[in-house]
Amino acid sequence: MQDLSLIHKPITGLFPYPKTQEEWEPYRLSQEQVDFFHEQGYLSGIKLLDENQINILKKELEEVADPKHPFHHLFHEFHSNESDDPNTVLFHSLGHWRISKAFHDVIWNPAFVMAASQLLDNQKVRFWHDQLFCKPAHHGGVVAWHQDYSYWTRTIKMQHLTCWCGLDDATTENGCLHYIPGSHKWGLLEKPALAGKMDGLMEFMTEEQKAAFKPVAIELKAGYGTFHHPLMVHGSYENRSPRSRRAFVLNVFADGTISNTDDELLKGVPVIAKGRKMEGQFFPLLN
């Protein structure tokens, strides 16, 4: 086995990649969906996976989540529990696309690639990084209210996009994602601790923003995804239900995004000098 980040195309038949414009068409979002995204800051209910794909990803998630996996060193981050509360658990990792064939290939899932390109104004799309967020039954931890770009200012300009996809049904009971519609128009806020107290972001908000803080639960069946703007305020509550809540996240940016730091962008990734284009082994072009 090798580091799969060296391969910039699908390596299994799990997500057949369209070869013609006609083959892309079934994945195209409507103009109404694109308009809703730009107005509200998110678009949910997009089918990304079938049952077979879900089952294979679940199996490979179980394998890569084992700290004894022989390629564990390829993770950029790995937290068996990132929660500040010892009574709750939030598994969180970055870099599993380098280890798992299925999680490598889901980056080239045409349903994801087409939507991402459209929501980024039909630009070419580059992979940024992946994430796993898993909340076990009964004692799953929170993901604090935050904006993704507050953790990504080391890359400019802001032309990023996040896709969250569940491998289990996500409900209010087991800690589904919540959005604050329209909050992507608030500008960049300070960043809280991601697995800290749920409402840490509140101290950085204006009274007007607090008054508009009306969470909307994004309940989704397994295999369905939700996309959101890099400034969308979002988070998820704890899981006290008898069902797990496993999900993966794909983060991308438009081609032409550049490094805004001379420091390491991700652990284990060679430095891209400030002002240089984000490209190469770890940031493949997807379309």
From TrEMBL:
<dbReference type="Pfam" id="PF05721">
    <property type="entry name" value="PhyH"/>
</dbReference>
<protein>
    <submittedName>
        <fullName>Phytanoyl-CoA dioxygenase family protein</fullName>
    </submittedName>
</protein>
<dbReference type="GO" id="GO:0016706">
    <property type="term" value="F:2-oxoglutarate-dependent dioxygenase activity"/>
</dbReference>
<keyword id="KW-0223">Dioxygenase</keyword>
<dbReference type="GO" id="GO:0005506">
    <property type="term" value="F:iron ion binding"/>
</dbReference>
<dbReference type="InterPro" id="IPR008775">
    <property type="entry name" value="Phytyl_CoA_dOase-like"/>
</dbReference>
<keyword id="KW-0560">Oxidoreductase</keyword>
